[in-house]
Amino acid sequence: MSRTALRICPLCEATCGLTLTIEGTEVTGARGDRDDVFSKGFICPKGAAFGAVDADPDRLRTPLVRRDGVLREATWEEAFDAVAAGLRPVVERDGPNAVGVVLGNPNVHTMAGALYPPVLIAGLRTRSLFTASTVDQMPKHVSSGLLYGDANAIPVPDLDRTDHLLLIGANPLESNGSLCTAPDFPGRLKALKARGGTLTVVDPRRTRTARLADRHIAVRPGTDALLLAAVAHTLFEEDLADPGDLTPHLQGLDELRDALRDFTPEAVAPACDVDAGTIRTLARELAAAPTAAVYGRIGSCTVPHGTLASWLVDVCTILTGNLDRPGGALFPQAATDRTPRPAGPGHGFALGRWRSRVSGHPEAKGELPLSALAEEIDTPTDEGTPVRALIAVAANPVLSAPDGDRLDKALDSLEFMVSVDPYLNETSRHAHVVLPPPPPSQSPHHDFAFNTLAVRNQVRYTRPAVPLEPGRMAETEIMARLVLAATGLHGTDPSAVDDMVIGQTLGKTVTEPHSPVHGRDPQELAAQLTGVSGPERRLDMMLRLGPYGDGFGARPDGLTLDRLLAHPHGIDLGPLASRLPQPLKTVSGKVELLPEPIAGDLPRLRAALRERPDGLVLVGRRHLRSNNSWMHNVPALTGGSNRCTLHIHPDDAGRLGVRDGAPVRLKGAGGEVTAPAEVTDAVRPGVVSLPHGWGHDRPGTRLGHASGNPGVNVNQLLDGRALDPLSGNAVLNGVPVEVSPVAETISALT
Ligand SMILES: Nc1nc2c(c(=O)[nH]1)N[C@H]1C(S)=C(S)[C@@H](COP(=O)(O)OP(=O)(O)OC[C@H]3O[C@@H](n4cnc5c(=O)[nH]c(N)nc54)[C@H](O)[C@@H]3O)O[C@H]1N2
Ligand SMILES: Nc1nc2c(c(=O)[nH]1)N[C@H]1C(S)=C(S)[C@@H](COP(=O)(O)OP(=O)(O)OC[C@H]3O[C@@H](n4cnc5c(=O)[nH]c(N)nc54)[C@H](O)[C@@H]3O)O[C@H]1N2
Ligand code: SF4
Ligand SMILES: [Mo]
Predict the structure, then answer these.
(1) Atom of ligand 2 nearest to the CA of 227
(2) Closest-lying ligand to the alpha carbon of 625?
(3) pTM of structure
(4) Residue 468 counted as domain residue
(5) Which of 29, 417, 621, 716 is the most exposed place for a label (fewest CB within 10 A)?
(6) 12 lines ligand 3 (CB under 6 A)
(7) Which-ligand-closest: CA of 692?
(8) What is the pLDDT of residue 80?
(9) Range of the domain at 436
(10) Residues 156 and 297 grouped into a single domain
């Protein structure tokens, strides 16, 4: 007998609602939920393979504990005993910074990843925090922090209403969107065109997204900040800069104009490889469109001027009056956001409150660069202790971060490491304890992070589609127990963690005059919470305290967990709405257009006007049926065009004697890899492209299918030194590489 159950897809940022077909405890099918308030039936091949991803036989079913050097199956009790025994002596001997925490991407796709890492870090008091953000979007957080005073205030393009979208370094037809949660992103782009809007794509590759565009600009990698500086310059020069209603909320407009004076289209054209006329056209089109949004993603962030590019994305939106207005880019308001405080000055955003021990990298948003993890482990210094123990949650930095070989050795030298991960893979194989979460069908889901980045305000929650298999532990409980084991409270009931968070949150909220629960008794409020588990009670609390919440009775029609459960396809909360000045938390209470750290970084951008590397540079690419480092083990999602090949333009291939399908050697600052060439004019001359997340040939992993077609680790070409200095973000795109046919190298040796 089969039944169906709803489940929000956790496999990318689009957060589609799925209808799963379930036989017994097995997911045998997945289709788009047509009644989902947000995704309305959309599904992609990854979502359709939900059952196969869920039932992968290589997923770990029990914890593993290392004994006599070998990882062996163990009970949960043994595993957490080993975690406490492994971590606590390090903390007690060397202090909390000797325990590193690495948080990988899937943390934003699980409830456990949203609810417990903040408690873990606060409890441990470690400054050795490294996350996937510094190989991804940290530049955007830093630019938002500086412009708006809140690193999480990220404007989202109003895809469904805009007249003009300038899309930079993003390929949503493969990625399904990022920092812009939009189920059926491709359909929304087609709708933009159908209603007479225009799409411009800036990408060194002619991607599927670029093919949809009215205009494709094959920019030289790493030069978007220059390009956008010239667009902003043109807006000023041609008197097109008109922030309109935004003007009273802005500070520093004149200083901004002065700061951009040198970046004329003519000056940036040679570096960007885009002619000045085209750049002026970009500016004019942006200004002329009734509404427009500028949207930059991976290609604009993971580059040497990532923070400046991210800042200029918003500057162009602001100068054309498109920030915070329908059709432009707006700040979403999620159901679990805190009750908005009244508008007014805030504390602002500080960078570099501490620095990394070895290279002195400034912290950003409380994090150190993931690129610096290896040296923080393997390099002693006169002061401070190296990282001696590591907690890795949903993270595979051996493949995702620069120089995996060095990190591999560094991880091997740790006194203790614990991984919360469903797979024994390139990173978790170094752990002393592996704590496997259950598959997604057995986990509840709510998108805490992505709802704050969604193109429509809405809220959805799905309970586990299948009950926890015997012997499994919910990831929320794994994380609660991990918090306790790491902070010296091993053995305490894990519900204590949720009770503590609830007590602290309510205790603070009742003191806030703008809160609907101001002055009430926190214990009385806590007693009202519903939900079958600690995490559900926390969700209920956040919903009720949030901008649409019932305020624990203050707004009887408002949201509660019960109300959400009564709407299994979600609740639509309306289109994005103007919110300024409320989201601003800068010291001035305004949008600070030219913050000091940005001004201080502009001379470096000016110097880049003269840089024109003559060799080949490398960029990445994503494939619709792949996802970072962990989905190559699912047969249904591999093969076909989803392969780890080097895209190279026919001109470059001809010049270098590279044949289609033949192996080529790539050499970068961090090492060498060999991959088959795929000669294609989808990549511009002077640029080659290799996808990331491959390289599944290390021993000691349990990835039966992936290891059969391992591919190579593109990040081995990097040595981790190239960073965007303001954000600490790794430079993953526009990286200089040498390319040579393998046969030639061999003949040269003989
Ligand atoms: N060269 C290059 N490198 C890149 C990028 C690039 O574009 N180019 N992209 C970067 C970006 S944007 C990112 S976000 C990072 C991503 O890199 P990571 O942060 O390493 O994330 P993933 O590879 O998605 O998965 C990490 C781990 O999570 C585990 N996992 C999967 N599901 C779950 C779960 O439900 N719970 C738990 N606890 N674990 C789970 C997987 O088994 C895997 O070991 O890679 C970055 N690296
Ligand atoms: N199918 C699939 N979907 C995913 C993922 C996945 O691995 N696979 N990963 C998820 C994650 S973690 C993230 S962060 C998002 C990322 O989402 P996107 O940002 O849309 O990711 P990409 O598809 O890598 O697109 C980046 C584009 O930037 C281009 N590019 C490279 N360098 C430059 C440059 O210097 N300038 C410009 N203008 N363009 C450049 C590349 O050619 C590429 O087409 O995708 C998410 N969704
Ligand atoms: S687009 Fe993303 S969220 Fe939607 S089904 Fe595909 S993988 Fe899942
Ligand atoms: Mo990412």
Answers:
(1) 38
(2) 2
(3) 0.98
(4) no
(5) 29
(6) yes
(7) 1
(8) 98
(9) 60-126+369-442+474-492
(10) yes
